[in-house]
Write a structure and sequence with these properties.
single chain, about 725 residues, alpha/beta, TIM Barrel, Rossmann fold, Immunoglobulin-like, 3 domains, eight-stranded parallel beta sheet, 26 strands, binds alpha-D-glucopyranose
């Protein structure tokens, strides 16, 4: 259908039918869904009538190949104009083949890998009947108390933007109408949900507009520049107004300034939440503010269907606002080809062929090995010697809970567990397994069995971490250490004074007190997905070299939070030449720097840096400079180094961060091999939002840092001159 045909269709619809297109309901409301029995409860509670369901626009959270065909066909018979449903679901890092959580994927610094993971997730979702996925989540994060940091790729706007583009490319492909095994992407949560105060989910966000534009908005914009079809509102307030009713942010910035004319969907219940937020007296008022803000689809509440008809008839809401929302929704259905092909990619045959295929699991394995970060390795604990007798101890030794909180159709039973993977590689006679304790509780009996296992082994691998529900949505923690039972287990094992490696399965940077100081090696596996156990085993045994680098800082303790690499210097920086002993920006009881900084990660080999060179010590807008550095593999094993380029603008119209990531180069080097990383740095990369929100660079002196992490670099400098 062309636009005129869509407009003609809208003209034929009643006001109630148009408003119902703005309604998204969860699967149980629809005929043909296996668990239809659940309809009456929520339906009565929400006052949803059959005609509303018949005219509704989209279904949330249903993905079954045959079922999707059944539900769509049943719906088409009921919809007065034969308008198909949009099927939407949360395929965030995999459908059935689960990839590492995005915070892990972020540590790969590998955009092709990210794109490939998204393409596979889209294929498995599309053949199961999904048309739109609520991904990528690109919220910038600086507070590990927040449970949803696992869904993000970290604390840097530049890297988050690259990942946002890669995920959108993988999900959407080039032509959603022809490529029926891709899905439309929905970038979320707009905006700045990651800045929830105190890391408490759904909490207030209060930032200057400059801070918002400089750090939190770039990744959403990057997703939209890559053609992302949909945006989801966030639960939080921005400048005192909840995002789902925030006209300045949505209609002003997103639609008018950025020119986004795609579909804007609320998060679950977020329109009605304007009431508890204190931004609306009742559902009518909530509907009024949301439609004026430009929210097209109301997810799982019924303010629109109950409130908008009267508001339009009273003349408080112009029916044109309804029509523009309906048009955007119908345009998306047209882009997906649903009018001609309403069941689109749904195919039981294809589902049987592609879902959880070996090819997909191999891709998940590759993503996992590239996302696992080696945080410590002293005394040669790792890689494990092939002859060693290993005691594998801990609540994650045999656990399948390694998929993370958004693992949709992923099966913990089918996940490759660490004990099985190690047993396959070491042989049963060289592996002893003991749980040692539960995730949050332990018993003396378990502990004794673990100590006995450890006593028989040459080396100990502790498999520790957080249950998946300890992070993710509504998974905020005020104490980000491992649970006490696990700390006690580590302490007991440490008493044996045997080589010990801790492997962490978790969804956030943790306070590693009692872990980092008590073990010789620490491996951050995050939630590594369906092939996680195999990937961890191969890293532990040195079959592959750990190459991942952190994209979110690990604090010494929660007392330092928020702690992030691109911070300001302050007027009394610690460590300055003329710094006083006391009156500087510091803690009395902790360092300022995190335990492990942004960009940090170890390999089994080492890399030496020398010869940092700039093509010129002057840059103009017309004349970029080249930055190069030599990197030598100074160890005995091949490895991959992620050479990172940072800049610091020494003086700006507003103060500038002490480091800003502007590029990275990966070098795979054999033992003794020397490579050169070359970067081009241009004036456009030095631009930032000034106090008047204008975006531009300031002439003056800049420092350049090149190295293995944000805190371990060689330094040089250049002058940016007016043209
Ligand atoms: C949740 C999440 C959002 C998700 C939506 C639909 O509350 O905030 O990320 O896409 O509901 O499940």
């Amino acid at each position: 259908m062309d636009n005129q045909q869509l407009l003609d269709l809208i003209d034929r619809m009643t006001l109630e039918e148009k408003i119902a297109q703005l309604l998204q309901l969860a699967a149980p409301f629809y005929e043909g869904v296996e668990d239809e029995g659940q309809i009456t409860g929520p339906m009565q509670a929400m006052g949803i009538t059959d005609p509303m369901i018949a005219s509704s626009g989209s279904i949330l959270g249903y993905a079954r190949a045959a079922g999707a065909v059944r539900v769509q066909e049943a719906h088409l018979k009921k919809n007065p104009h034969g308008i198909p449903l949009l099927f939407m679901a949360d395929i965030v890092h995999g459908f059935k083949t689960i990839f590492p959580v995005p915070l892990a994927m972020g540590c790969s610094w590998d955009m092709e890998l990210a794109e490939r993971s998204a393409e596979i997730a889209a294929r498995e979702a599309a053949v199961s009947g999904v048309h739109v996925t609520f991904a990528p989540m690109v919220d910038l994060v600086r507070d590990p108390r927040w449970g949803r940091v696992m869904e993000s790729t970290g604390e840097d706007p530049y890297l988050n933007s690259l990942f946002a583009k890669a995920f959108v490319r993988g999900l959407q492909g080039d032509n959603l109408k022809e490529e029926t095994e891709r899905v439309a992407a929905c970038v979320k949560h707009f905006a700045a949900y990651g800045a929830s105060e105190a890391g408490r989910d759904y909490n207030t966000v209060d930032l200057s507009e400059r801070q918002l534009r400089e750090y939190y908005l770039p990744a959403y914009k990057a997703a939209l520049d890559e053609g992302c079809e949909m945006v989801m509102t966030s639960f939080n307030t921005i400048d005192g107004i909840p995002a789902s009713g925030n006209e300045k942010l949505m209609r002003g910035l997103l639609r008018e300034e950025w020119g986004f004319d795609g579909v804007l969907i609320s998060d679950w219940g977020a329109v009605k939440e304007l009431i508890p937020h204190g931004a609306a007296e009742d559902e009518r008022e909530a509907a009024y503010r949301a439609i004026r803000a430009g929210v097209d689809i109301e997810m799982m509440t019924s303010c629109y269907v109950h409130g908008l008809p009267e508001l339009v008839r009273e003349g408080r809401v112009d029916e044109a606002l309804i029509d523009e929302s309906v048009l955007r929704i119908l345009q998306l259905k047209e882009k997906l080809g649903l009018f001609d092909n309403p069941t689109r990619g749904a195919s039981p045959e294809r589902a049987a062929e592609v879902i959880f295929s070996r090819e997909h699991r191999d891709a998940a394995y590759e993503a996992a090995i590239k996302s696992i970060v080696l945080l410590k390795n002293e005394g040669g604990v790792l890689p494990l010697s092939p002859e060693a007798k290993v005691a594998l101890i801990g609540p994650f030794a045999s656990s399948g809970d390694i998929l993370g909180p958004w693992s949709w159709d992923g099966s913990t039973e089918d996940a490759v567990k660490l004990d099985a993977a190690l047993s396959e590689r070491l042989g049963k006679d060289r592996l002893i397994v003991a749980e040692g304790c539960g995730i949050e509780r332990g018993t003396d009996e378990h502990l004794l069995a673990a100590l006995k296992a450890a006593a028989e082994a040459d080396v100990i691998v502790l498999a520790l971490g957080e249950a998946s529900e300890m992070s993710g949505e509504a998974g905020s923690r005020s104490d980000i250490r491992l649970p006490q039972a696990q700390l006690e287990l580590i302490d007991s094992i440490a008493g044996l004074r045997k080589p010990t490696a801790a492997v962490l399965f978790n969804g956030r940077p943790l306070d590693l007190h009692g872990v980092y100081d008590k073990t010789g090696a620490v491996v951050e596996a995050w939630f590594p997905g369906s092939e996680g156990g195999a990937a961890v085993a191969d890293i532990l045994l040195g079959a592959v070299d750990p190459s991942a680098r952190l994209t979110m800082s690990f604090p010494h303790s929660v007392g330092q939070v928020p702690v992030y690499y691109n911070h300001f210097n302050t007027g009394r920086p610690l460590g300055a030449a003329d710094a006083q002993v006391r009156y500087v920006s510091q803690y009395l009881d902790a360092p300022n720097d995190p335990l492990l900084p942004f960009g940090f990660g170890l390999s089994y080999t080492t890399f030496g840096y020398d010869g940092l060179k700039l093509s010129s010590d002057e840059m103009t807008a017309d004349r970029p400079i080249t930055v190069s550095v030599n990197v030598t593999n100074t160890g005995a094993r091949a490895g991959t180094e992620t050479v990172q380029l940072y800049v610091r603008d020494i003086a700006g119209e507003v103060v500038r961060p002490v480091r800003e990531l502007k590029g990275f180069v990966k070098l795979e080097l054999a033992p003794g091999e020397r490579g050169t990383a070359v970067f081009t740095l241009g004036e456009e990369q030095l631009r930032y939002h000034h106090s008047d929100l204008s975006f531009g660079s300031d002439p003056g002196r800049f420092e350049v840092f090149v190295g293995r992490s944000s805190l371990d670099t060689l330094k040089s400098s250049f002058i940016l001159k007016e043209n």
